[in-house]
Amino acid sequence: MSDHSKDIEKVDELTGLSTFTSFRILAQEVLNDPTIRNDIAFVYFNIENFRSYNERYGFAAGNDCLRILGQNILAIFPQEICAHVATDHFCVVADKTDIEEKIKKICEELRPFRMETHMQLHAGIYFPTEEDFESTLCMDKAKIACDSLKHQYDSMFGYYDEKLDDEYQRSRYIIEHFDDAIDNGYICAWFQPLVRAFTGEISGYEALARWIDPDIGFISPADFVPVLEKYHIIRKLDLAVAKYVCDIQKKVMDNGGQIMPVSINLSQQDFIGGDIVSEVDEIVLESGIPSEYINIEITESIFSMDSERIKNIINAFRVQGYEVWMDDFGSGYSSLNSMQKFTFDCLKLDMSFLADFNKSKNSKIIIESVIGMTKQLGIRTIAEGVETLEEAEYLKQVGCEQIQGFLYSKPCPFEEVSKLDIPRENTGLRKYHEKIGTVNLLSQNPLGNEDDGENMGFPMALIEEIKGEFSFLSYNEPFIRFINKIGFSAIDKVEKFINSDSEDAKIVSNFLRKSASDNSLEVCHYSRNGIKCTLQISQIANYRSRNALLIMGLVAENMQ
Question: What's the pTM value of the predicted model, to 2 decimals?
């Protein structure tokens, strides 16, 4: 390959290698030469963790490292086309003879620089085929092979193979057909319901992007989302989903139906450049949908960015009337730190919290601590990934306000989700239910004594009165022990008792009704089964004929 000299190229000042522009021209000449194209290999190098080296030792040391690596590449491939592609990326078009041994030598030369930064030089190798006509595509394939080695510190090089080719072809299809899919509605949103824990009613939906391609069928978000992020065009997808949601909402509203809050997901890149708040708000305003019916979900990944900028964007959304939710809370390491810096309206608990909750004491402690913390901060909670009735019942009892998961429905088109046999929450009841959700029934144990039931916190329950009839919404474990102590075997027995005409029942129900009608704090004293009982009753929310009351059992002792 010596005939393909560097006479026409510009040289990278730092490394002395070809620039990327010159590399493309020279590599294309080689690829076009039928006498040698079958004997060449495209090799792409990347230094993993180079940023850590720069941060630890400074940019001057980093430049020295790049310069020495460039010299080593040139020394191993003196007659080949070698380029410094980007910061810590290099590419070579070389004779494929002994290519592995040459790559190993170059990788070994970087070893003295690794020190405490765990730097690793990886190389991806691609042999062009008869169907390859563009040098940049060959380099892309070598890069894909290189990228596949990320975090594999025991691997120096890897080949572009059939599996990687499938991924590459899928990525190309996604990029080449993305705009057409948006324009023709092949990309849409499916909806997964959120269910109010203590009523079992649908309280809203999450919109999730779906791509139904006319040629290849369903394309998984796990396939197209990373590709769109990689090529920095995910913003267009997120805005398209926002418009799709608003169009659906407007259609329901125009037909006289009841619209419900829908959350849309924003990606990390949406917070870089531009004005994402104005872009979303313009779509919502144009549709005529009140902003309170669109919630913004963001993930923990954005918190690695400029915190002041993120804070301003979150606040701007909230000023415009949108709620901002933190998705996948607990999936990363900075969740609690982000709670200190930013203001959220709701946390969505990562499904990993529910793993073995019925077997692991630690899981329960974590779940209940998080829910208790959010209630103190005035933040609502949603548990996603719920699959069993046991999980749902537990979450209801510990005060998680909404539940999302396959227990109720998988994500599906709006036409299907709107026909689910699950009642929908009345719009007017939403604020009422949210106020009920602020009450924290979690047991407090100041002595930390698990074995002593008397020290496991106050017995508390939420009870709802509708036109004189009472029903329990939620209760904690100490309340169950409280009712057991005074002779009730289960909560439904207490409910039946309160709604009965017995004189004992009327003592309690009259205090409940008085608290509801007067919005007053009432203290009820009565005796049952030789046990003296004291209840404190207070109204916490009301809506039309509904009243929500908090009952606290203060005393339950044997009469002497």
Answer: 0.80
